[in-house]
Amino acid sequence: MVNGRVMGIDFGMRHIGVALSDVLRITASGYETVNWNGVDPEKAVLRIAEIVKTMDVKEIVMGKPSKTDGTISESERKAYAFGEMLEEKTGIKPSFRDERYTTVIASRMLHENNIKAQKQKKIIDQVAAEIILREYLEQHRV
User: Fold this and answer.
1) What band does 129 get if pLDDT is binned at 50, 70 and 90?
2) Measuring CA to CA, which residue among 26, 8, 4 is closest to residue 106?
3) Which strands sit side by side in the sheet containing 5-10, from one edge to the other?
4) Which of 27, 32, 64, 106 is the most buried (most CB within 10 A)?
5) Domain count of the fold of the chain
6) Which residues of 40-60 are buried (b: 16+ CB within 10 A; e: fewer)?
């Protein structure tokens, strides 16, 4: 069995949700929301690379913001470019997963748990990253 933390990333044009697994790859937890301006990703890449190093992350899985009709969106192109920059900084090539509806699911989960709207805004991207990571971990269990 492979050990070591996996990082899940919910890539967005303003906020990037980050979630981490435990070292045994059993659980997934929201870790941080990295804010950026949607234009220059350098600071966001550096912050995530810092988390990778500090938390000894071994794998990265990123949400791929695909369009429902299957065409490649501008957000998807930016996610791939962000993933390439992240690979340059960390040496870890991210794997990509379809992330359609993860934010909707995250919002529903937070609402069902009576999390107030103001609090939801701060953590919704982390919860979406947690969903992406949890699905990945479940598919890769031995």
Assistant:
1) very high
2) 8
3) 28-35, 15-21, 5-10, 57-64, 95-98
4) 106
5) 1
6) ebeebbebbbebbeebebbbb
Q: Pick from 142, 93, 102: which is nearest to 124 by CA?
A: 102
Question: What's the pLDDT score for residue 104?
Answer: 64
| CA distance linking residue 1 with residue 33, whole number of Å | 30
Q: Which residues contact 31 (CB under 8 A, 6 or more apart)?
A: 7, 18, 19, 20, 51, 55, 126, 129
Place of tokens 């941080």: 32
103 token code pair: 């934010």
Q: Are 33 and 122 in contact (CB under 8 A)?
A: yes
Question: Token pair for residue 73?
Answer: 């969106």
CATH number of domain containing 49 = 3.30.420.140
Q: Which domain holds residue 96?
A: 5-139
